[in-house]
Design brief:
This protein is 27% helix and 23% strand. The chain is built from 12 helices and 21 strands. The strands form 3 sheets. Strands 4, 14, 15, 16, 17, 18, 19, 20 and 21 form a 9-stranded mixed β-sheet that branches. α2 runs parallel beside α9. The structure holds pyridoxal-5'-phosphate (PLP). Pyridoxal-5'-phosphate binds next to α10.
């Protein structure tokens, strides 16, 4: 059945001003390169990711399924390593998506790995990432996590509280490797991003405040401990950031602290870690920075600030997560029901939802969506793609333009779901979490298997 087309927006004027849909795309079958995995294309109308036909992937691995283009991840790693050069360091923030295969890829392309829990640390170690190329983050690391990190000899621990410095000092006594400690500072920068993705304004849980003097005191305490090595300063201003203005202000404030450290303790910081947060394009409206320009700009900022302050430039580290894996992956869903709520909107229900992508509900994130299993020349239909969970906020794509001949059983693909989707996935409504399938040169292999109901029931002790 061909449905009513809505070429220029909702049929009735009942959409709130803040809820305006974008204009329909010129071509519903297009795959804008900035948003889709770099090698995504249509062959005879069917979406191919990493050379694999999405119909075959759905048949073999089921839906929903995350399809990750390995070469896409690797190429983005190479771009970061090239752009930041031999005197910079790039660490992949594993929280974006953490599994052994991906950590092996990024490590083999020359990146270190950032972890922020004992769980992520175990994945990195078991993937064979050398401990000295791992950094441990977290605002409330347990004694066990710190102990494991110190015993394993991780390269850096990022100190986030006074309690933690005391714990580290205790654990470092007699440790084979003296822990290198970075002090995480809260620079007071209001990053232009969603409130829950901004991490350097004063009123939040991470780091030591520069404004209050806590950061200076943290450095004093690390330096006072003979078993800890003070390695430098860390700042992370937030996530999904498009311009470098926030990094400039943060670098300026961190360099001011570095000057105070030199004046008070007679040492210059060896390392400046500016964190991650580099944005990617989820929709046509997102203007993500080119990595080369980003690197040039961050280096110039740090060079300029250090020169002005009379400091030698410390080694610059960055920690991209989303920018490495975000665009590499699409989620494939099968269309279930299509419901016209008369006079309001069309709801397309798919077989996943907020359990595999919470970002729309959590951050009001915007996504694109395309018919993947075939091409269509039917006119566009404005609809809302929703999941199968018992929440009205279970929205996958708030405003999607899909062909008006969309039917049950069609496959839909949502691009840019490589970061913070599988890693934030849940079992809400006892829905098993989907598989992640890596594709490369037409071959597909699961790198995280789909959970089963047996997995879930095995946790339930009756
Ligand atoms: C300390 C730190 N580094 C790096 C990242 C990675 O951020 P993104 O994935 O936006 O690059 C985060 C994300 O929250 C973070 O908290």
């Amino acid at each position: 059945m061909s449905r009513v087309a809505h070429p220029a927006g909702p049929r009735h004027g009942d959409v709130l001003p803040a809820d305006h849909p974008p204009v329909p795309p010129d071509d519903l079958n297009a795959l804008p390169a900035r948003i889709w995995p770099r090698r995504a294309r249509r062959v005879d109308g069917v979406l191919m990711i990493g050379g694999a036909d999405v119909r075959d992937l759905a048949a073999e691995f089921g839906t929903p399924v995350y399809v990750c283009d390995e070469e896409d991840v690797r190429s983005r790693c190479r771009e970061y390593v090239d752009a930041f050069g031999p005197d910079g360091r790039v660490f992949y923030a594993a929280k974006a998506f953490c599994c052994r295969a991906v950590l092996r890829w990024v490590h083999s392309e020359g990146l270190g790995v950032d972890v922020c829990t004992g769980g992520e640390l175990e994945v990195a170690l078991s993937a064979g990432v050398p401990p000295e190329q791992i950094t441990l983050h977290g605002n409330n690391k347990t004694l066990e996590e710190l102990s494991r990190a110190v015993a394993a000899g991780v390269g850096h621990v990022v100190a986030d509280s006074f309690e933690e410095i005391a714990r580290l000092a205790y654990l470092a006594e007699g440790a084979a490797v003296r822990p290198n400690v970075l002090v995480r500072v809260t620079t007071g920068v209001e990053a232009t991003t969603h409130e829950f993705m901004a991490t350097a304004h004063d009123d939040q849980k991470f780091g030591f405040s520069l404004a209050s003097g806590a950061a200076d005191e943290a450095v004093r305490r690390v330096l006072a401990c003979p078993d800890l090595e003070f390695a430098g300063l860390h700042s992370h201003i937030g996530s999904q950031i498009f311009d470098t203005a926030g990094f400039e202000v943060a670098a300026h404030r961190v360099v001011e602290l570095a000057v105070r450290i030199r004046d008070e303790h007679g040492i210059e910081i060896a390392e400046l870690d500016l964190g991650g947060g580099f944005g990617i394009a989820y929709t046509e409206e997102d203007d993500a920075p080119e990595v080369k320009e980003l690197a040039q700009s961050l280096r110039a900022i740090v060079d300029g600030q250090c020169r002005a302050a009379g400091l030698a430039r410390p080694r610059l580290t960055v920690e991209p997560g989303r920018a490495i894996v975000g665009s590499s992956t699409v989620t494939l869903y099968e269309v279930g029901t299509i419901k016209d709520v008369d006079g309001l909107r069309t709801y397309v229900s798919v077989d996943g939802g907020m359990s595999d992508n919470i970002r729309t509900a959590l951050y009001d994130a915007s996504y694109l969506c395309a018919l993947a299993s075939r091409e269509s020349s039917a006119p566009p239909m404005l609809c809302r793609v929703v999941g199968r969970h018992c929440e009205s906020g279970d929205i996958v794509v708030r405003h999607a333009y899909l062909p008006s001949d969309l039917a049950t059983g069609d496959l839909l693909a949502v691009p840019a779901t490589g970061a913070y989707c599988r890693s934030l996935a849940s079992n809400y409504n006892h829905v098993p979490r989907p598989a992640v399938v890596a594709v490369n040169q037409g071959a597909a292999r699961p790198i995280l298997r789909r959970e089963t109901l047996t997995d879930l029931l095995s946790l339930d002790l009756g």
